[in-house]
Write a structure and sequence with these properties.
The protein is of the alpha+beta class. Helices cover 30% and strands 38% of the residues. The protein is built from 5 helices and 11 strands. The chain has helices spanning 32-45, 78-87, 107-126, 146-153, 180-190, and strands at residues 5-6, 10-17, 20-28, 51-58, 64-68, 93-100, 128-141, 159-165, 169-176, 196-199, 203-208. The strands form 2 sheets. Strands 1, 7, 8, 9, 10 and 11 form a 6-stranded antiparallel β-sheet that branches. A 5-stranded antiparallel β-sheet has the order 2-3-6-4-5, sandwiched between helices. Helix 2 (78-87) packs across helix 3 (107-126).
């Protein structure tokens, strides 16, 4: 599976299992220092919680990864959270699952299911993005063609990043490398081959995973 970033910067989800509250916090963390700072911030926010269990993976090659059970039985919290991140192919992400104990013991199997399920819920809510090769273009055309051009882009993967209005309209667009030829052919057709084009250097950009 292609490794992926988490889409949202940070959020949390909550579930109740046998009267225990499990609050999963997920954040995009580009460095181990950022991951540790996020974990510390959750621990400060939930000082009264019984446990703040966590896991993170840093770098696309997953060179840096860590799981912490924070007082739960060994292997029942941090590792299940980490396994969710691995299964989803995520990197540069940290998850902290806060538990407020409800008085009913879940057992090792129950804890593993609770922590992995909470982490999976947070990942699902956050969404994911992948890095792709994108070709930026500056396309200048007469106002006559702008409505049709913009309508053409609605619902497509092509993103208008900037629009400049002078005697003509100049769009800066990001086009997936494998869609460039088809896109330029459509622009040529829409503008009756009257547009001007400036191709910029290829960049890496993020695209949401459906």
């Amino acid at each position: 599976m292609e490794q992926q970033y988490m889409n949202r910067v940070d959020l949390n989800t909550e579930t109740v299992i046998s009267k225990s509250r499990f609050i999963a916090h997920i954040a995009r963390t580009e460095t181990e220092a950022a991951a540790k700072a996020f974990i510390d911030s959750i621990k400060q926010e939930h000082k009264a919680a019984n446990h703040n269990c966590s896991a993170y993976i840093i770098t696309q090659s997953a060179l840096i990864q860590k799981a912490d059970d924070d007082g739960e039985p060994s292997g029942t919290a941090g590792v299940p959270i980490l396994e969710v991140l691995k299964r989803e192919g995520l990197y540069n992400v940290t998850v902290v699952v806060t538990r407020y104990f409800g008085g009913i013991k879940l057992g090792a199997g129950g804890l593993i299911r609770a922590y992995s399920g909470s982490a999976a819920d947070a990942v699902s809510a956050a969404g994911k993005v992948v890095e792709i090769d994108v070709l930026p273009y500056r396309i200048t055309m007469d106002y006559t063609y702008t409505n049709r051009f913009e309508h053409e882009l609605e619902g497509s993967d092509i993103t208008i990043k900037d629009t400049a209005y002078t005697d003509k309209v100049t769009y800066t667009v990001h086009v997936r490398q494998n869609e460039a030829d088809q896109f330029l052919a459509r622009v040529q057709e829409i503008t009756k081959d009257t547009f001007s084009l400036e191709a910029l250097d290829m960049i890496r950009a993020e695209s949401a995973v459906e």
